[in-house]
Amino acid sequence: MTIALPKGRIADDTLRIFSSILGEEFLFDDRKLILQKGNFSFLLVRNQDVPTYVYHQAADIGVVGLDVLEESKIDVLKILDMRIGRCKIVVGSEIGKPIDYTKSHIKIATKMPRITQEYFSKKAIAVDVIKLYGSIELAPLVGLSDGIVDIVETGTTMRQNNLEIDSVIMESSVFLIANKNSFFSKKREILQLQEKIKGFL
Ligand code: PRP
Hints:
Blueprint: E1 2-6, H1 9-22, E2 34-37, E3 40-45, H2 50-55, E4 61-65, H3 66-72, E5 77-81, E6 87-94, E7 106-110, H4 113-122, E8 127-131, H5 138-141, E9 147-152, H6 156-160, E10 163-172, E11 174-178, H7 180-185, H8 187-200
Parallel strand pairs: 1-3, 1-4, 7-8, 7-9
Antiparallel strand pairs: 2-3, 4-11, 5-11, 6-9, 6-10
């Protein structure tokens, strides 16, 4: 069984869960991107690439945030909420400078253009989405945008940059996902794993 993990803290947490439920240690060697042990191959990939590996069946299952999944719109099965990596996707703006929704075009900076566009379309608000790759909180401070759509976990980054939450778009946490064909062909193994993780959580 091949499992795609997003590099960083979520991979560490997930490997810890696997080590606990399977009773053996799973640790990547420095800089190695694949870890093979017994029946398992773990792949270390970029967060946003997890759904792609799973969709194309390069991995049978994967671990990824609901925010990434929603943004990618990739068709995979969500099989378990792992209740880690909890965060919110919010609209934010400078404290004391709320977004002026009467303007004809509002500029919103974000890493998540699709979620942003959908959210504002549903509210019939026209937005120019400015796609950035990080440090989103900077955009309204230097006049690049009127507001942001970003992830809030502890709230520290927004607070320290004089921003506040306007509205919450969605809550997110990390999900175990599966390729549809793999779920059919390896149903027993996948469900067993899902049960063990569920028990552990
Ligand atoms: C994310 C997000 C916020 C921050 C929120 O950024 O985009 O900037 O974390 O966390 P907090 O509420 O706990 O402060 P990330 O650390 O992924 O870095 P990036 O800005 O380079 O994307």
